[in-house]
Amino acid sequence: GEGLMRRRLAAALLFGLGVVLLFVHTTMPALWELFGPEGDYPLASADGPLALASGFTPVIGAVLMLTAGLVSVPHRTRAAG
């Protein structure tokens, strides 16, 4: 029903956000180096909050992707008796 569709939408949004967070500091710098314009990747930093974020965003992204998988599965209730 409608509840299942909302769960799937929430799961898809969480998964998409997780993918973005996972790749923003892992895959994107490599792609920037290969195909991007001259210069450093814009989110690469050796100090400040961006340097700290590069260590946490892949982990947060992976957790969001796992959470999306759990959200998308409907709860199963045990039959009484």
Largest sheet: none
- Beta-strand segment tally: 0
Shape: elongated
User: How far do the termini sit from each other?
Assistant: 26 Å
SS class = mainly alpha
Instruction: Give the mean pLDDT.
Output: 84
Low-confidence stretches: none
Alpha plus pi helix count: 3
> Which range does the strand content fall in?
under 5%
The radius of gyration computed from the alpha-carbon positions, rounded to a whole number of angstroms, is 18 Å
Q: What helical percentage do the residues reach?
A: 55-70%
What is the ordering of alpha helices and beta strands? HHH
In short:
This protein has helices at residues 2-24, 27-35, 49-72.
Structure description:
The chain is mainly alpha-helical and 81 residues long. Helices cover 69% and strands 0% of the residues. The longest helix has 24 residues, at 49-72. The chain is elongated and about 50 Å long. It starts with a helix and ends in a 9-residue tail after the last helix.
